[in-house]
Amino acid sequence: MLSNDEINALIGSDGNFTGNKIKILIVEDSPNINLLYNRGLPDSIFEKRFAANGHDALVCYNEWQPDIIILDIMLPVMTGYSVLKEIRSKFNDKSTTIIMSTSLNKKDDVTLMMKQGIQGYIVKPFSVREIGDRILKYYEKIDHTRASAALIACRRYLEAMARDAFKPETPVKEPPLKKPVEKKEEKTEGKKEEKKEENQDIKDKEESADEKKE
């Protein structure tokens, strides 16, 4: 059981995770599934990298040393099974949390993966709201304090995201009606007509005066 001091050390007063971000390598060749991971795993908690095949996953693993690996089984170039065996046997890495992601839900497959040394597995499709929870629960087996604090922050993040999704839209106020402004061109034309009529009146008066003199 975590003490309040341990939790407060990793979670700020605003509910955000203040510890070092958890490095997670997501090995998945489906762009749609990757979008779900991206939405369900907040950037404030996780530092994420993606690989679309088994070979790229091993390269990233060697260079980056992630805390968690989400590993799909059916991958191009190199299967998830092969990647798992490489990490656990060839590199003798027993501490990295490896979670298999699969659409298979057969007991034999799960048993085989467990023997190879996974911490857990995820069955696709999954919910955005549950994925962070599931992953951090498995990560607790390796780093209990850090995972538990991240779990609290992740749940708060998802609750806030859900509230924002159902927040009513603010009504848009109509701007006040403005008094129509007369066009300058119309005023100018009007003045020209008035001046023209005035000049014509003067001319007519002058002609009339000349006729009387005659």
What structural keywords apply?
214 residues; alpha/beta; Rossmann fold; 2 domains; five-stranded parallel β-sheet; 8 helices
Distance between the termini: 125 Å
The CATH C-level class name of the largest domain: Alpha Beta
Number of domains: 2
Task: Look at the structure and give the mean pLDDT.
Answer: 81
Q: Report low-confidence residues grouped into runs of 5 or more.
A: none
CATH superfamily of the largest domain: Response regulator
**SSE ordering:** HEHEHEHEHEHHH
CATH architectural grouping of the largest domain: 3-Layer(aba) Sandwich
Instruction: From the 3D structure, determine the CATH topology of the largest domain.
Output: Rossmann fold
Structural class by sheet pairing and helices: alpha/beta
The best one-word shape is elongated
Strand order of the largest sheet: 2-1-3-4-5
SS strand fraction: 5-15%
Percentage of residues assigned to helices: 40-55%
Radius of gyration: 37 Å
Biggest beta sheet attributes: 5 strands, parallel
Number of strands: 5
DSSP helix count?
8
Q: Helices, strands, pairings?
A:
Elements lengths: L3 H7 L11 E6 L3 H10 L5 E6 L2 H11 L3 E5 L7 H11 L6 E6 L4 H10 L3 E4 L4 H12 L4 H22 L18 H30 L1
Parallel strand pairs: 1-2, 1-3, 3-4, 4-5
Helix pairs in contact: 1-7, 2-6, 3-4, 6-7
What does this structure look like?
The structure is a single chain. This protein has eight helices and five strands. The chain has 214 residues and is an alpha/beta fold. The protein folds into two domains: 4-165, Rossmann fold, CATH 3.40.50; 184-214. The chain has a five-stranded parallel sheet, sandwiched between helices. Helix 1 packs across helix 7 (144-165), helix 3 (54-64) runs parallel beside helix 4 (80-90) and helix 6 runs antiparallel to helix 7 (144-165).
